[in-house]
Design goal:
Blueprint: H1 6-9, H2 18-32, H3 41-57, H4 60-69, H5 88-100, E1 103-106, E2 109-112, E3 117-123, H6 125-130, E4 132-143, E5 159-160, E6 169-174, E7 177-182, E8 191-192, E9 205-216, E10 225-228, E11 244-250, E12 257-259, E13 262-270, H7 271-276, E14 278-284, E15 287-293, E16 302-305, E17 321-328, H8 335-349, H9 352-355, H10 357-374
């Protein structure tokens, strides 16, 4: 099936701005995201189609190639680069050296994509489980507002590089081969600056702090990443901006431990409750719940509360909460309480095999061990 026009996919005019492209993609991505439309093949296809359109149109070099040659200009079998039929030789060597220096060419000059950035976002367990809207502050290299990114001081402009003639590339002959590489004088810009900008010192970019809103989906866990497209550092020579990757780190919780979709916690219970049975109120992330403890429960016994865990961010069944009961030995006993316990102990020892089977079995094993060692 023939591919649809990328502008039609994003519901945009061909004269649209970069900001309009980003806005349209985000709207469609949120509408058709697989997490919101589980099992919907049509939405999944629309999501992939919008993503492909955005990857082409958000890249100035690829967009220019697409506008001129259509889908053939951004054929993915050629690594997503546009094809210039008038420069086959330059295309071959441009792919080699362009990849080495992290950019492509625009109008003959070298362009560089901005660096990707990483930000670690610490969350409480509740924020990770139920979702959270956070504001983060990052320092990035952005376009200089004084010179507009060209690096020249006010009242002056960059001039064409005399070495490469504004191409940003030079060719050197080595025997039968000609090698093309970025111009050593202008570093691939195609222009040189006689009077650098006072704010960015000719770099065209300055470091500034920005505040961004990050919507954390429910169910994320430590190590999950949220990609904010084009929110990384600005590119050079008109190159596209990098991306910002927000990596989630969930803080240690005072009560719960998480393992995937499941939660676990320790629940202390009185030894009388363990012996006689009863109900214990236990915490869950959705409120308190009652746990029924049968009589004769031993310390370390694990009980499962179904569907009291986490609903994973990528879909699937909600996890469970595992409660490990720990029998608490009473402390600070009065004389009367000690006397009652001694009376209880005397009655229990009259039939220890029945009341304390594990202790009786262990003592029998110890006895056999010593008898065997004497032989």
């Amino acid at each position: 099936m023939a591919k649809r026009d990328y502008y039609r996919v994003l519901e945009l005019e061909r004269t649209c701005s970069d900001a309009e492209i980003k806005k349209a993609y985000r709207r469609l991505a949120m509408k058709h995201h697989p997490d919101r439309n589980a099992g919907d093949a049509t939405s999944e296809e629309s999501f992939k189609e919008a993503k492909e359109a955005y990857e082409i149109l958000s890249d100035p070099q690829k967009r220019a190639a697409y506008d001129q040659f259509g889908h053939a200009g951004v054929d993915q079998s050629r690594g997503g680069r546009g094809v210039d039929p008038n420069d086959v030789f330059g295309d071959i060597f441009g792919e080699v050296f362009g990849d080495i220096f992290g950019g492509g060419r625009r109008g003959g000059r070298q362009v560089f994509r901005g660096a990707d950035l990483r930000y670690e976002l610490e969350l409480d367990l509740e924020q990770a489980v139920f979702g959270y809207s956070a504001e983060i502050e990052i320092a990035t290299l952005g376009e200089c507002g004084t010179c507009g990114g060209n690096g020249a001081a006010k009242g002056s402009t960059p001039v064409r590089c005399a070495t490469c003639g504004g191409q940003g590339q030079v060719r050197t002959q080595q025997g039968f081969f000609a090698v093309q590489q970025p111009c050593p004088r202008c570093k691939g810009r195609g222009t040189t600056i006689d009077k650098p900008c006072d704010e960015c010192y000719g770099q065209g970019r300055v470091r500034r702090a920005r505040t961004l809103a990050v919507k954390v989906p429910a169910g994320v866990d430590s190590g999950d990443r949220i990609r904010l497209s084009a929110e990384g550092e600005a590119g050079r020579n008109g190159g596209p901006a990098g991306d910002l990757y927000v990596e989630v780190a969930v803080r240690k919780h005072a009560i719960f431990e998480r393992a995937g979709a499941d939660l676990s916690c320790e629940v202390p219970i009185a030894f009388t409750t363990a012996a006689l049975g009863g109900e214990v109120e236990v915490p869950t992330l959705g409120g308190n719940a009652n746990l029924k403890v049968p009589g004769g429960t031993q310390s370390g016994k694990i009980f499962r509360l179904r569907d009291k865990g986490v609903h994973p961010v990528r879909g699937g069944a909600t996890g469970d909460l595992f409660c490990r009961v720990m029998v608490e030995t009473p402390v600070n006993l009065s004389a009367e309480q000690k006397g009652l316990l001694k009376q209880l102990d005397e009655t229990l020892r009259k039939d220890s095999k029945r009341h304390n089977p594990r202790e009786d079995s262990w003592l029998a094993g110890v006895k056999r061990f010593f008898e065997t060692s004497r032989q």
